[in-house]
Design brief:
Shape of chain A: globular
Oligomer: heterodimer
Strand order of the largest sheet of chain A: 10-11-12-9-3-13
CATH class of the largest domain in chain A: Alpha Beta
Largest interface: A-B, 19 and 12 residues
Distance between the termini of chain A: 55 Å
Number of helices of chain A: 9
CATH superfamily of chain B: RNA polymerase II/Efflux pump adaptor protein, barrel-sandwich hybrid domain
Number of strands of chain A: 19
Radius of gyration of chain B: 13 Å
Structural class of chain A: alpha+beta
Number of strands of chain B: 9
Structural class of chain B: alpha+beta
Order of helices and strands of chain B: EEEHEEEEEHHEH
Helix content of chain B: 10-25%
CATH class of chain B: Mainly Beta
CATH topology of chain B: OB fold (Dihydrolipoamide Acetyltransferase, E2P)
């Protein structure tokens, strides 16, 4: 591949990654750190044991400011595009949701925070330009849609994340999972959420472009904090049973197929106070009752060989019979110390404990449908009570 | 000094005194692959064609094929790798050999790259 032919963007932390010895790779139009000299396995285990700092500045931050000045109007407008209850997100809280298309497929997954007088969205890097157009096309009557794509975003994840951030911003300790607060971190005004995508406790920090390096260096200077690349980010999120857009989720996959029913609150379901009203609602809501024909599940293969995306699944070792599903994400889980996968399978084969057979390089590998997540999450759901 | 040659697929091949060969992946290969978590080795007695995929190295990043450097028969595989695949990251060009092979054509070994050629080849990548 001729990289010089492709416009590859850099995040504000590019030079820091290089100075830390990162192996840089193209990802979603950016040159990103795949790993540092410690390597993916060590970085993964370190994040679960101590704390890791991830550059996720390639993701898109978008501000929705209500023209009326009332954040509820921006929330109501956003509900035209997503199936979650946005209106009920309290100031200083955030929620996970999906952009759906008219067929009920998933266009992107995102976080929505209520910052009191506006909403702040964090969307996937590969989707951010189309998300921006989508928001402008459908919400411009009610909101100004402001891309903050130059802004930095870092994630501090792991059981040591609280101590590391609280050393710089003591208020961080009192935040609960999915709380969002503006905090002064190393003299920089950051927008901090207690969230992340590793299954660990931790934070994401939105940072003005010119100050990202200063904040990242201050966090890396804390005891136990190491820089972590995209390689470990992928194995961490898969152990946590979290979906990767473009792999586990796409426009051909509905929320029920993706087992994301929990992200659709009662108010938006049939009989709810603001039922439907988002693209593909008829299908999406019907599937909440009837179920979909296939479903995302966790898989534990026997042996040590990882099953990669695209691996076909069968009900038995008869590979001439129709395939009943396909692996979407597969890897070796360093904490699990075993291979793991997420797959889309026919609903009749989706119950926990169901035994299936994967076709790996022409040979059968027995696999078992297993509950997600593979590794118990460490989210701090009620930090105020424990921190008091 | 043992005679060791290299392939463009980043395998090393050592010619033993009895005319058989021992095959593994190079240090450059293990470095590029990252942490190895699983290795699939060929069945002993399997006949391999030149360039045939005969082993798979699974790292935390991806699966990579290992190819037969020339035609021949598999004599023995390194069972230690089934128990401890990370040996490849620690000693790729030593203890972490993959398999031993009897070449069909005794001259085939001489067609592979010498160390200086392989080093020069790496510079071009």
């Amino acid at each position: 591949m001729a990289l010089s032919d492709v416009a590859v963007a850099r995040t504000p932390l590019h030079a820091l990654h290089v100075s830390l010895g990162a192996r840089m790779v193209p990802f979603a139009g950016y040159e990103m750190p795949l790993q540092y000299p410690a390597g993916i396995l060590t970085e993964h285990l370190h994040t679960r044991a101590r704390a890791g700092l991830f550059d996720v500045s390639h993701m898109g931050q978008i501000r929705l400011r209500p023209r009326s000045g009332l954040v509820a109007d921006a929330a109501l407008a956003l509900e035209r595009l997503v199936p979650a209850d946005i209106v009920s997100i309290a100031p200083g809280r955030q929620r996970y949701t999906l952009f759906t298309d008219p067929q009920g497929g998933i266009l992107d997954d995102l976080m929505v925070a209520n910052l009191g007088d506006h909403l702040l969205l964090v969307v996937n890097a590969a989707c951010k330009q189309t998300d921006l157009l989508h928001l402008r096309a459908h919400l411009s009557d009610a909101c100004t849609v402001e891309p903050l794509f130059e802004r930095g975003l870092v994630a501090l994840q792991g059981p040591g994340a609280e101590a590391a951030l609280a050393a710089l911003a003591p208020e961080a300790a009192a935040m609960s999972f999915m709380d969002v607060r503006p905090l002064d971190v190393a003299g920089v005004s950051c927008m901090v959420s207690r969230s992340g995508y590793t299954g660990e406790d931790g934070y994401e920090l939105g940072i003005p472009q010119t100050d990202v390096v200063r904040v990242a260096e201050a966090l890396l200077a804390q005891p136990g904090v190491l820089p972590i690349g995209l390689g470990a980010r992928d194995s961490l999120r898969l152990e946590a049973g979290l979906c990767l857009y473009g792999t586990d989720l796409d426009a051909g996959t509905s929320p029920a197929e993706a087992a994301l029913e929990w992200s659709i609150q009662k108010s938006r379901r049939i009989g709810g106070v603001r039922a439907g009203g988002f693209p593909g609602a008829d299908r999406v809501l019907a599937e909440l009752g009837s179920g979909a024909g296939r479903r995302r599940v966790g898989l534990l293969p026997e042996g040590r060989a990882p099953l990669r995306g695209g691996t076909r699944l069968f009900a038995s070792e008869d590979f001439n019979a129709p395939s009943i599903g396909t692996v979407r994400s597969g890897a070796f889980g360093p904490t699990l110390n075993a291979p793991m996968a997420m797959a889309m399978v026919e609903t009749g084969h989706s119950a926990d404990g169901t035994r299936l057979v994967a076709e790996l390089r022409g040979r059968p590998v027995p696999v078992r449908v297993a509950p997600l997540p593979f590794v118990t999450p460490g989210y701090k759901r009620n930090a105020k009570r424990t921190a008091a | 000094m043992a005679d060791i040659r290299y392939t463009k697929e980043h395998e090393w091949v050592r010619l033993e005194d009895d005319g058989t060969t021992t095959i593994g992946i190079t240090d450059h290969a293990q470095e590029a692959l990252g942490d190895v978590v699983f290795i699939e080795l060929p069945e002993p007695d399997r006949d391999l064609a030149e360039g045939e995929s005969c082993a798979v190295v699974e790292s935390v990043k991806a699966a990579s094929d290992v190819f037969a450097p020339f035609a021949g028969k598999v004599l023995e595989v390194n069972e230690v790798l089934a128990e401890d695949s990370s040996l490849v990251n620690r000693d790729a060009e030593g203890e972490a050999w993959f398999f031993r092979m009897e070449p069909t054509d005794p001259e085939a070994f001489n067609g592979l790259m010498e160390e200086a050629e392989y080093t020069a080849y790496l510079e071009t990548l």
